[in-house]
Structures are given as structure tokens and as C-alpha cells.
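pinning this so it doesn't scroll away 📌
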Amino acid sequence: MDSINFGVGCFHFGFKQEEVKMNGEQYLEHLKRVLSSISNINNIDFKHDDYFIESELELNKKLELDEGDPPFPNPKFLQIKFDIYIPKRIQSKYFDKIEFPFKPVIENFKVNITYSYFMPVCFIYSFEHCYQDFPSDAILVIREFLKENVIDDIINFQCIGPSPFHADFNLQEKRKDSKSKYFLESIVNKENTYSSINFYIDDFNDNTFEEKVNLLFFELNDELALYYRITSFNNQIMNGWMEIQDKLEEFQKTFRNISFISSLKSPSLRVKKINELYLNIIDFEILLLGLNRSFMDSFNVIYNRKHYYLKSFNENYLQDSNEYPIEQINKIISLHDKRFTKNIDLIVLLVTALIGGLVGSILAIIVN
């Protein structure tokens, strides 16, 4: 019986430039030239539909996948496949760089990047069976290699974490009765390391084992793409929150120790900054609501079908998403607002008292 281990990540070949105008066919031609220029890469193959080839790709700002931006281009169907050779000494360099205690054992890998409606998903595997225990490490190696070697003025290599996905996958041929094409035998959650996800497929059909492997990739693609879409949403939300934190810190540095006299000099600036902070919070809450709604729509699309395998991963990942202290930040802004309002009230009281005293003095002079 054949078996194979594979790792999963989210890899993408995006645009390095801020302004781009080309069609899908030109993009693929250029990407093939870039990949072909790397001597370690061969057997490059693209599968796509006619719509992508004819579609116009226009971009007017730089997009980065790991910043929460959507992948661009993001075709409904595109598969990028190639073989890659990475010598053990180069792999050791990457592992040493991150202080990872792993000794490379093979040098030839197969890369399959498949786009779906959500995000691109990368599957990496090898038919050299000595590479059995930690296939997710191949994701790390090839990620670092592509970062270092994809050098071009137009196209760049992008990825989003976690790449590798926090699991090692295995597929084996085995006579197994199941209503599904693939039978998910177990998800083993290990302590202090990645989970193991084991699949079996019957060995009765006439497909080659490599064809069965690619069919499994296709079967898993949408669920894994959804996982990385959650990651992208979380990155967008985190960036929005960091912007609020930066502006609040700037505000506090500017006005924390401001004297009463100084507050008289810049009331309009203070009001403007407080209003900006309130608007930032409102924008963030709108972003949060919109992304959560979009995610739930995506979640329902995936899990309304009959067969799925990784729902628990996506549910747990969603539950582990960060919560943001919006209410506490609103209270901090409100305290600044009340402090400023109190100063204004004191100013009004002082001015009123001065005017009242002046009027009283004038009247006394007139009466006398």
C-alpha cells in the first residue's frame, strides 16, 4: 500500500509594484519566466480556466498578504505546480536561522498551490518516503527558499502565517468502507507539537496514487482556504486595532501633562483629536461587524455540504481569535473628554466672574 505525508501553508505570487495593468495570460507568462529563472525549480505547470486568462488585472496600490490584504490576483480557479530541489546544506541554513533543531533528510519536493474562492493553499510533499515524520517542515524550508530566490521587479513571493499549518497530514491507501471519498481516521492532538491528521483512501479505483493525492488536495482545499481567510480577517482587525492604540498613545503623550494655561491655547486641536479617536473606534467596530458577517457567510457555505474534515480546526481557531477591549478604550477617551470639558467649564466660570466683576465696578463708578 502507498502512503504519503504532506504539509500545508498559504503561498501566493503577488505584485511588487503599486500600479499594475496586465491580463491573466501575461501574469502567468511572467510568473513562469520568474520561476524558470531559478535553477532549482522545474516541471512548472499551470492549470486554469479561460476566464482568468482573459481577465484584466488592474491594481493601484500595493497589497501584502500578511498585512490582511486579499490575494491579488485571486482567480476562482488556478493551480500552480512545480518541483523544487533544495540541498540539505541550504535547508540546514534555514533551520539554523530560526534555531530549529532539525536535520534534513531529503532534497526533492513537489509544490501544489491551488486557488479557490477564499485564499490560495499550498500543499508540499515528496515521494521520497524517508521524509515521514514532520512534513510541515518542508513548508518552512520552501517558504524561506522562495523568499530568498524569487527576485523580480513585478512579481514577489508572499505568504501568510501559520505557514506551516499546525498539523502534519498523512494519506494511505487502505481497503476501507466509507460513504466519503476519503476516510478521516483520526486527528491526534499532540502536546507541544503539531497535530497529526491521518486519511485513508480505498485502493480499488484505477487512479494512480499521485492522482489520488491531488484529489485529496482538491477535497481539502476549501476548508484550508477558509482557515487562512480567518487568519487574513484577524490580521486586518489587528492592524485596525494597532492604529487605534498608536493614535491613543500619541494623544496621551501630547495632552497627559498639559497645563491649564496650555489647554487654553489649543482647545480646537484637543476637540479634533478626541473626535478622531471616537471615529476610529466606530470605524473599527464597523470593520469587525463586516468581517464577522463575511466569515460566517463563508463558514456556512463550506459546512452546509455533506463531507468535511477540518471543521473542528476552523471552529477552534475562530474561538481563539483575539478579543479587543473596545469598552475600556472608550472609557479612556471619555475620561480625557470629561477632563477637557471640566477645564472649559472652569474657563467659562472664570470669564463670567471676571466680566461680572468688571461690570459691577463700572456700575459702581457710574453711581458714584
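📌 and the second one:
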Amino acid sequence: MKTKYSYLIGGLITLLIFVMPIIGSANTDTDSKFNVIYQQNKYQQSSQTGWPDLKLNPSQKTDVDIIILNRDTKACKFTLTPSQATTNSNMTYSLDVNLNKARNQIQKNQYFSKIITLDHTKITIPAKSKITIPIHISMPNNYLSGNWFGGVKISKTTVNKSNVGMTNNFAYNEVIMLSNNGTMEKPDLKLNSLKYHINKITSNYLQFNLTNFAQGYMSHASTEVQIYTKSGKKIGTIIKSDNHSITNGNTFNYNVPLIKNLKPGTYVADFKIIDKVNEKIWHWKPEFKVSGAQFITKSSSNLWWLIILLLILLALLILWFILYKNSEIVRVEMLNDGQPFEKDIKYREYQKLVKNNIPVKLIKRHVK
């Protein structure tokens, strides 16, 4: 087995995505105004990593201390969410799923609800102040042949009152790696299913459902997808994608957008995942079907929306014409004791007079 350190070197760039602040802003204020500093633990395996990478025995406990520095001029509230890493639909690591909810995506023998705990999940830090947060680590009783990968997501939301109440959302992911032996298993992937999905807004896509059964993650992986008809005719060009990562013991969906939509029929997806770190390739050729009901191209979908819009406009035009017609002022000639006189009335009143056989003569329309 290769050492865990060698695997972390290969995955360093990918993991740094989680160590650095993730900023989502609704306006131009993109400064999170807080920092998170990791206080190195005595069980740290390598001083070259900027996150906790600990080697512990089964049932052993320790605390990982992090410092949150509030650089803002006012007190700020933070939310701390413990998480076990999952793999999202882009096939990259994610710490966005709460630890309790992550159990739906993690193999039972690799999910540990109490492996990391916090004293508080919501804290307030005064202006220009810092606070030390202990993250309690409690290793499982059973021996881990590979590693555990998770962490704590630190979130801050601010409201900018000077910008019509717009909100800024900031998050920092503190990655935590845990193991018993300092080594790491190689990934063990299985393709569970493949489905063709319709997306009326963008392009249709293939959805591969996969499971990594091992206690080992994958980084710097690439994928290749080539579609064929069942008779072997190539459809389009090969779809390539790089910089993918898969976490341990995880079941997930991987979505591959298609360059062109497919006609009804049976197809074969030649699908590869290339693990450059472990020098391993997974290769599948599953069949999938596109039914007539699924065959909705973007152009035909847009045409239907255009037809619906035109019908709505036509209905509004007819309604406007009827209302305008009924409210139109016209000049008519009527009789009073046998003497003719002129009068301005609404067009609908003129119609009622004609309908009731009352002598009336239309002299002028659109008087007002």
C-alpha cells in the first residue's frame, strides 16, 4: 500500500478548494471579514498539510482546535456544521451535507455519526475578536483499514442594509482526515445504473449512479464518455472531463451534459473513469433507452413556449378590442317629440338602442 501522504500530494490542489474560503455574494462586498486558523494537533501526520491529517488508534479521542478571527467592526454570528465528505453531481468532494444527512450517501460500515462533535453549532464573535473552537474527535471502535474524510463547514451570513437588504453568504470548509494506520485503500468503484434525463432549459444529460465501496478517496481523476447506437454507430464526439474527485464509501450521481439530444432508441455509453494517482481505469459499457416521450429537443420546447406566448398575446388583444369597443363614445341622432337632436353616448348603449328597435342614427364614431 502506498502511504497516505503520497496520495495527499496528488490530491492537494483539489483539497485546497475546501480549505480556502468559499464566497457567495449578492453584491460587491466579497470580503468575508473572518479567517479560520488550524492549530496543529500532536497527532498530525505531516506538517506540510494545512488541515488536520491525524493518525489515531481505534476508540482514541482528541480535540482539533481552530481559531475563528472576526475582522469585522461589528459582532458576527457563525454557524458550524459537522459533515462527512460526499461526492456531488459534478464528481467533486463536498462538505455541504450535514453529518446526520450524509448517512443516506455513505456505506453503513463507513458512516460514523459521532466521529466529530461540537459544543456549539451557533456562535457569536465580538467585533475585532477571535475565539478558539474545539472540534472533538472520537475514533470508531472498529479498525479503519483506510481513512475517514470529513470536516466542519463554517458559515456566515450578513445583511447589507445599504443595498436594499441584499445578503452575503460566506463559508469556510475545515477539512479533517483521520486514519488508524496512516495508509489509504485504493478506490473500489461500481456502476449501479445509467439514466437519460431531460433538461428543457439547458441540454439533456446522462446520469451515472456510482458507489465507491473502499475507505479510500480518489483525486485528479478524469472521465470519458462516448455514445454509440446499439448497432455500433458512433454518436457525436467523445466527452472528456478532468479534475474529478470521489470520496470514500460514497454513493452518488454523476451528470454528463450532452452536446446534442438523442432520438428515441437504444444506445450504449462507453464510460471510463481514469484514476491517475492509483494508475487504474474503470470501464463500463451500459445500455440506456430514449423513449418517444423523452424526445423533447430544446428547439421544439422553445417553439411550444413561443406558440403559448402568441396565444396569450392574441387573447389580450381580443380582450382589449372588446373593452375599447364597448367604451367608445359615438354621436347619434335621436327623436324627442318628433324633433331630431344629437347626443354623445357609449357605443354599447347605441347597440342596445338598435337591438330594442328605438329610432337612432349613427352620425360619428370616436367622438372622444
